[in-house]
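Write out structure tokens for glutathione-specific gamma-glutamylcyclotransferase.
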Amino acid sequence: MRHAPRTLSLTPGHIALIHREVPDPGPTAGVQQQTDADYAEWVERIAQSHPDPARPTQLFAYGSLIWKPEIEHGAEQMGTARGWHRAFCLRLHRFRGSQEQPGLMMALDRGGQCRGVLYELPHENLEQQLDRLFRREFTVKPINSMPRWLTVETASGPVRALGFVMNRTSPYYAGRLAPEEVAQILAKACGHWGTGAEYLLNTVTHLQARGVRDSGLWRLQHLVAEEIERAAAAMARPDAAADPEAGARP
């Protein structure tokens, strides 16, 4: 079996090859959106189920929350959530994908383990922080990324932390896809937030900076780089101009 190299294969240069300006299409017609009342209910539910209200709330970040948290937080520490793993299993028709070229985003799916970052949230405005966080993490009904309390192992012992896990009953759950299939999707999908490949690169880069090398993501970034290079080479062929589908073939 061939192993991926120790250095990143996927680069900003690859991202530039597939990035394109995509207008925000807005919410998908016919899909119910979370309302202010829904978010308020989720905030109340999570606040009331807090495992230890006397202690600071911990938030478990495994993906974009690591490199774009967008919330107030204090102390940070590394931790491992067992029984969950990162997976590109959430289908997107907006944000980093489109109706014409659906994308994939990471979620925590069942099985394995996941090393990530714990953020300590401030006491004084916890409900406002949760509201902002929930509006960031889920927008449609039925909910796709469900907030729940996880047990996360740290150097000082286990802690209970808020995390977001994949709702397998969501119509956007893609299931367990082969890495090669995920790579083909990420190498093409783009929305008004950017490409799936950029999302992957940001996550791998920031995990690497914290000493975390997720073997699945590391292999995936190598496969995505190969897919982008293959498509670029196909488009550069002399006959590509006469065949507009040439660059889309695997």
